[in-house]
Amino acid sequence: MTGRERVLRALQHRQADKIPIDLGATESSGMTAMACNALKRHLGIDSPTRVYDLGQLVCLVEPALMALAQADAAPVLVGPREWRPWSLPDGSPALIPAAARIQATDNGYQLLSPAGVPVARCPRGGWYFDSISHPLEAAATAADLEAGRQFCESFDLPFYSDQSWAEVGRQACRLFRETDQALVGNLWVHLLAAGTDLRGYENFLIDLASDKPMAHRFLSQQLEAYLPRVDSFLQAVGQYVQVIQVNDDLGSQLAPLMSPELYREMIKPYHGKLWGYIKEKSGKYLLLHSCGSIYELIPDLIELGIDALNPIQVSAANMDTRRLKREFGRHLTFWGGGCDTQTVLRRGSVAEVREEVSRRIDDLAEGGGFVFCPVHNVQPDVPPQNLLAAYEQANSFHY
Q: What is the pLDDT of residues 313-364, one digit of tens each?
């Protein structure tokens, strides 16, 4: 059975010969570049690590590592045309997009826009670049939002990801023909996160609660900005991908970021329009990435046509995998949840990692509807032995 067939069976809630495996098919099921370098040092692999997402410092998982993990899925995404060398925060080497402008500071690094404006910062000893630019923060009227429409149109498509749609389409065609992996179109398209980043986190949450006309104006504008991109993306890759990933982090460690009632009033209608448009135009399975405790929102996500959920943050409140499978397993494929990243994968022994993976498989694998990967990207402090043990344990399971 091919990897493509395994993933499709999981999405159809049918058992395959073995559990389908993911390492790197999405921006939230791969590896940070520092973790990747540590793994390659452990394995004696000498090859350049390519960082395509500077925010998370996430890298492309190269074919040799995918083969080691027996990965059944691969990403299709808009990346850079060219690369250049850079040293990661831990001093190890990597290639980053050539168009990216990173400036050293007294306390780390900052990412500059093409105009030279600092837009993100990585502090000394940090692992990520955090956004520090909220270009619509001062907007007070519909006219102010309209004047900043270009920020909505470029959101989720970093300036350093400069491939054309034709180039992305050729990449997808090559992967479809040369591999037997399921292809995941990484479309991203946040709505809630677009608001918190472009308006500022505090501003936008206040908008949602107390200035709802402003929030509606922003969400409408962001939705309008995304639809032409969806069309371009689908025209380029739609015939090759089997899954399309969308994003919006809706949960914190302890609860949803807002009450279910507020979500249903303010965010859900726009999710419905955006995700419904993608499904109607593409006919593909929709994979939603949403971190945190989102148990209370899962029925809404299913209603909106989401087919699979990632990363299944098992350490968050109310995200018990056995309960999730029992209550939602007929309708939802769990793409993740294979090993707790916050504690076990980072701090556990190899035996504890194997035990954790077996437990999550017991909870999630029966009847299909499960794609194995740890919870979110592999972080820099994960011991390579633990990561290898997790994937070895998952690959040892056969239905």
A: 999 999 999 999 999 999 999 999 999 999 999 999 999 999 999 999 999 9
Taking alpha carbons only, the member of 309, 206, 219 closest to residue 267 is: 219
Which of 263, 205, 182 lies closest to 20, judged by CA? 182
SS3 (DSSP) at 280: helix
**Residues whose CB is less than 8 angstroms from the CB of residue 337 and which lie 6 or more positions away in sequence, other chains included:** 311, 312, 313, 314, 319, 321, 324, 360, 363, 364, 375
**Domains, the chain, ordered by start:** 3-82+135-395 (3.20.20.210)
**CA distance between the termini of the chain:** 13
204 pLDDT above the threshold of 90: yes
Whether the Cβ atoms of residue 122 and residue 103 lie closer than 8 Å to each other: no
* Widest distance between CA atoms in the chain: 59
Q: Which of 265, 324, 312, 254 is nearest to 288 (CA)?
A: 312
With tokens 């380029």, the residue in question is 236
Model-level pTM greater than 0.85?
Answer: yes
Tokens linked to 380: 């820099």
Q: In angstroms, rounded to a whole number, what is the distance separating the alpha carbons of residues 329 and 365?
A: 10
